[in-house]
Design brief:
By secondary structure, the protein is α+β, with helices and mostly antiparallel strands. The protein has eleven helices and five strands. It catalyses: ATP + protein L-histidine = ADP + protein N-phospho-L-histidine.
Length: about 450
């Protein structure tokens, strides 16, 4: 880059729009410190009623330093109001990106989890707010003071050779040195303002943004929200998806026999009505969870409803052989998840092999430690007449894997000879674990 280009880059950095906005931000800091400074300076004037020039300068500088603890204390006490205002000013004038912080009004939502964590986060936020206020107002005061003093001094130095006048303290400055000295003072002021703005820009995210503990807490809350959304997605997929499969099969069958077997068509329409009503109940339950309305949460099906689930599949012409053993002592959470796994297995059988016999087995091991859920159906010999094009893209396997993982169990699904087999084993004393990897269950058609 040429010398001219380098000089232009320096000028833009020191006097461009970004630099000027930072300069304004610093001057605002100097203005904000004025009330604190005046209080301390007035008290100091009472203690030193008639200071000399040196003592006066010392009093002014000492008043400035003594006002900074007052600034820190005020910012700490009013941190709840100071932080949002400072963050807004930083984003607008410093063009610094400050992440939102939970509970301080800067854009975060939610809670920190426990009272102790909230108190710790609040204390840390107050301390960082106080440090930021001292930095902003302290540097801002120095820049604002220089901004008030340097331009008049530079003007006098610049025009002194013309009028021959000047301030008394400039009497020893040669006339020829006036313009260079004025340029030096102005360049120093611009450099000082640029440096102060850069310091504050770098410090803003650390002092006004979330701390490491707050970032970890926010990440944990995000993980919990995502887990809840995934759970609701599983509920919708398994419940409403099964009902839609039943409705689609019954509607297709009723349409084919409507003219020559109206009685069957009426039974199919009744099954459609029942399946749709059940889907509405399930949807109402999920919407209640989303809205956090306990009164609208309908009881969730479990293994006590497994016979009704098998009957719904039989109603669409799919022979279902149901075998159960030792289900009376199954814990409620395992019972609900086992029902959903069996429901997804039957849904897949209806979708991919309609009309083929399905064997559904739910049995507790001899040592009462695990519940085994098995769904088997023959592989279709040809493409089914009714094809189901679902919007989920095959999320059934993911849903089963997540349900099994949450209970600490295992699952597998895939073809064995001429049979498709879904097999899951669920501990009756489930341990909460991380979700299984994608390879934990064969994707296939499940």
């Amino acid at each position: 880059m040429s010398l001219k280009g380098e000089l232009r880059s320096v000028a833009v950095a020191a006097l461009g729009r970004v630099a000027l906005r930072r300069w304004v931000f610093l001057i605002l800091g100097g203005a904000l410190v004025t009330p604190f400074y005046l209080v301390v300076n007035t008290l100091g004037g009472l203690l030193v009623p008639d200071p000399g020039p040196v003592a006066l300068m010392a009093l002014q500088f000492g008043s400035f330093l003594a006002s900074l603890p007052l600034v820190a204390g005020g910012a700490a006490v009013a941190a709840r109001f100071v932080r949002p205002l400072e963050v807004a000013a930083v984003r607008a004038l410093l063009t610094a990106e400050v992440p939102p912080t939970e509970g301080d009004g800067t854009g975060g939502t939610g809670t920190t989890g426990t009272t102790a964590t909230t108190a710790t986060a609040t204390t840390a936020a107050r301390g960082r707010t106080a440090a930021w206020a001292v930095l902003h107002l302290g540097v801002g005061t120095l820049v604002a003071g220089a901004t008030l003093a340097v331009p008049p001094a530079a003007t006098v130095l610049l025009f002194r050779p013309v009028d021959g006048g000047g301030w008394a303290w400039m009497s020893d400055v040669p006339a020829w040195a006036g313009p260079p000295a004025a340029a030096f003072l102005l360049a120093g002021l611009a450099s000082w303002a640029w440096a102060g703005g850069r310091v504050l820009e770098r410090a803003a995210p650390r002092l006004l943004g979330p701390s490491a503990a707050e970032r970890l807490a926010a990440a944990e809350r995000g993980r919990l929200r995502l887990a809840e959304r995934n759970r609701l997605a599983r509920e919708l997929h398994d419940s409403v998806g099964h009902a839609l499969s039943i409705v689609t099969l019954q509607a297709a069958a009723a349409g084919r026999v409507l003219d020559h077997d109206p009685a069957f068509a009426r039974r199919a329409l009744g099954a459609i009505e029942e399946a749709a009503r059940g889907a509405m109940d399930e949807l109402d339950h999920v919407l209640g969870l989303l809205r956090e309305e306990d009164a609208r949460r309908t009881p969730q099906p479990d293994l006590r409803d497994i016979e009704r689930l098998a009957a719904s599949a039989r109603a669409v012409g799919t022979p279902v052989t149901l075998t159960t053993a030792g289900l009376d002592g199954v814990p409620a959470v395992v019972s609900r998840e086992a029902y959903r796994i069996a429901q997804e297995g039957l849904t897949n059988a209806l979708r991919h092999a309609p009309g083929r016999a399905v064997a559904l087995t739910l049995a507790v091991d001899a040592d009462a430690s695990q519940l085994a859920v098995t769904v088997e159906n023959p592989l279709p010999t040809r493409r089914p007449a009714t094809r189901f094009r679902t919007a989920d893209g095959g999320r059934g396997a993911d849903g089963i894997a997540e349900r099994v993982a949450l209970l600490g169990g295992t699952a597998s699904a895939g073809p064995t000879a001429a049979t498709w087999r879904l097999h899951a084993r669920l501990p009756l004393a489930p341990a909460h674990r991380a979700p299984l990897p994608d390879s934990a269950i064969s994707q296939g058609d499940t």
